[in-house]
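Annotators were shown the component list below and the corresponding predicted structure, then asked to write short factual statements about the assembly.
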Amino acid sequence: MILMRQFQRPITDTNMQKESEFSDKAFAPASGDMSAADFRRVGHQIIDWIADYSENVENLPVLSQVEPNWLKNNLPKHAPENGEDFAEILKDVDKLILPAITNWNHPNFHGLFSTSTSAAGIFGELLAAAFDQKAMLWRTSPASTELEEVVTDWLRQMMNLDAGYTGIIYDTASVSTLHALAAAREGLDLKIRETGMSGRSELPLLRVYTSEQSHSSVEKAVLLLGLGQKSLVKIAVNERFEMDANKLREAIETDKAAGFVPFCVVATVGTTSTASIDPISEIVPICEENALWLHVDAAYAGSAAIVPEFQKFFAGCERADSVVTNPHKWLFTPFDLSILYCRHTDLLKRAFALVPEYLKTNETVTNQMDYGIQLGRRFRSLKLWFVIRYFGQNGLIERIREHCRLAKLLADWIEADENWELAAPLNFALVCFRACPKNVENLDAFNENLMNEINASGEAYLSHTKLDGKFAIRLSVGSIRVEERHIEKVWGLLNAKV
Amino acid sequence: MILMRQFQRPITDTNMQKESEFSDKAFAPASGDMSAADFRRVGHQIIDWIADYSENVENLPVLSQVEPNWLKNNLPKHAPENGEDFAEILKDVDKLILPAITNWNHPNFHGLFSTSTSAAGIFGELLAAAFDQKAMLWRTSPASTELEEVVTDWLRQMMNLDAGYTGIIYDTASVSTLHALAAAREGLDLKIRETGMSGRSELPLLRVYTSEQSHSSVEKAVLLLGLGQKSLVKIAVNERFEMDANKLREAIETDKAAGFVPFCVVATVGTTSTASIDPISEIVPICEENALWLHVDAAYAGSAAIVPEFQKFFAGCERADSVVTNPHKWLFTPFDLSILYCRHTDLLKRAFALVPEYLKTNETVTNQMDYGIQLGRRFRSLKLWFVIRYFGQNGLIERIREHCRLAKLLADWIEADENWELAAPLNFALVCFRACPKNVENLDAFNENLMNEINASGEAYLSHTKLDGKFAIRLSVGSIRVEERHIEKVWGLLNAKV
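Structure shown to annotators:
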């Protein structure tokens, strides 16, 4: 297999030495679950395997090197009739799963947004899986219900968001944003909950505004809600890829004159392409004058709001209606954990609450099922609680600050080198750039090829975007394991080809 | 604390003995993540803690005994400034989290649906958290993308569903059903994706049909999609709580005559109140004649389709359009993992696909982000793969068969006792019943009180529903740890109060 040839992986050696441990049989009993003795033994082996993996992840390729269908073709077509020894299953994790893993934990994963889990977060998921809570009603998990309230409030304070915000945990920013838009739609008081939108000739065309640079999740939410692509107005950005507030104002006025009904603006702090920052403070008065719900997508950059010197980038959020941030992106928490901070949980409840007889209780408590499409909810707050306590506010601030310092370092190298140029202003810890050697005619093709070669090598993973029609390479710094030497390494890889 | 007084918990003693281990300090380093040595040591302690917990869960109360706000009031109002020793965090799990946990793993958890995780499933979540995959694109996780395809196909075969179904994993049945309805709406070819539903006078009133006994998630999906409560027609059920197919046919005809456009029927195999089974085979021709999408909600009972003698209850599914089943309910897989089996993944893709520049690749592969609202997806298939391999098909069949045997046993005791009566026919492993002692006037109040007392005792957890206006107790058998003695215990608790 390619992986084995290219990488002399210490992890493989380690596991080979463990063969004897794995070969202790661990078969399922005739009834019930695994014995406690087997659980301890196999559990310790898996913990050790993960420790080896974490120590050696840097020696693994970043992007999986397998071809499409490699894993599929190596797996049986049918489930086994009888139970297997757990040792065999673990061997297959090593042999079949690991090569097909793209190592998001690799410190040179710089594609998309570099996200990373941490040991504390993994332990949180482990215990959450063991408790297996379904926090629909308070009584089905007081722990999950109340810890969520406490820990989202901790983070709210860390992010310098005011106490008017209540945090609710969802799985992903796509779902958080969907809920914000659903609540905003409910706030229109058009009886959409009761009578829907279809076949009602009295209803107006509704309008949502966002920038050309906003995340696809905004459009997906609009589609799912039945508003249609046409209802989403994409406002042009300035040369820094920030929403042009004047154009937003004009678009709203034009739409109103045409009889449309604007109801929501989605602004972004930290767009996906360039981490650009929409001018929230300029957008706020436009929303207030027009009574529009302002949702701020800070899925990526929200974590940076815990760093005092970065809080200025979030100015205006104190007058927004909702803000989404994803601790699973840049707060060392395993995927998935997205938080919607919302001022109008009453509207969320109005949009979603529905209590069948079998879920009725006499308790006057918060039942989290009332605030979303999902009925059961995982005990996600546990891992975030672990992460915040283990690192402390200062530990988290220092790590995010360091990522931004490393991004600035790379940006400085780029700016000082005539073979390279920044393709967008530096924001947070995302660098957009391209090679521009004088002797190359087709710079787009050159850069794309350069990126693809580095990605294919497994040494680092970069991704791309298009800015003003030009191909730009994106390098995101976000791994808990990233150090200056990793940025130097990528800089070396890039320059080796230019 | 109440819990400590009521239960002499072996787990507490065990942990007390471990105090010395926990007191080895495990603080976060100045940069980067926990050391591998700390990870091993703390990880082993957590594994041991979970082993103790699992062995002793029967000695813990089922429903958490804490009062509302107990946990909240015992936690600091602000995040710690500096990182804490992980040993301190684990002590708080024992002291603060455990008492606030409702023990879904307790073999006498019979409320709602008795779901349960298994050791194999916990290990799957542990490794998934460590790999921290975001399977948006194939390349961002070939392992998750392809294992999902393989393992959902294994389960499809086990459930005796035909090869026309493709399985896609979502988090919950609420989200699976939402996607089925979104795809069905897209199949109307009314350009709802492009132009939405609002303000389009040419659009008809759309109609979705389900039974009076269907799950609230159907209605929630209809709300979110902007169809409105009015568009959901709830068809009456017969005396067995099964949808009346004749009434479905009449409702569709009436609606069509009124100019409405029916487009979807949601039938249920295993309703939440009574596990009743809608007559899929009678519903199928009605859907076919009217070109309606038939979605089958088998979130609970779908797991039982792997038992040969129960496959008859799923007759007709071979002509449905989609079927949802939740391995996290009755297949020993930790929450969350719901599978939507769908014949029309093209429509799902048409409803949801949206590829921004930064996610464009040249690979001709399946990118799972195209099939849903969520962009990133957890590596959920891993835990299901572990569960199916560890128990094997036969091990899983035997466990589900045994649960149904235990439910039948209780139903037999109830039928043989003049103080008790079944409130609904027995289906799968859910028993609906009530006490009917001759000397009691208000049977509803009597039964409600009886249930509340047992629940408050922490000895067992039962839930309720209303059937034909009468209060009925529900007892669901589904824990991997449940044995005949646990059913005997509840029967004893019930009879002690009658």
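Statements collected:
1. The radius of gyration of chain A is 25 Å.
2. Chain A touches chain B through 169 residues (CB under 8 Å).
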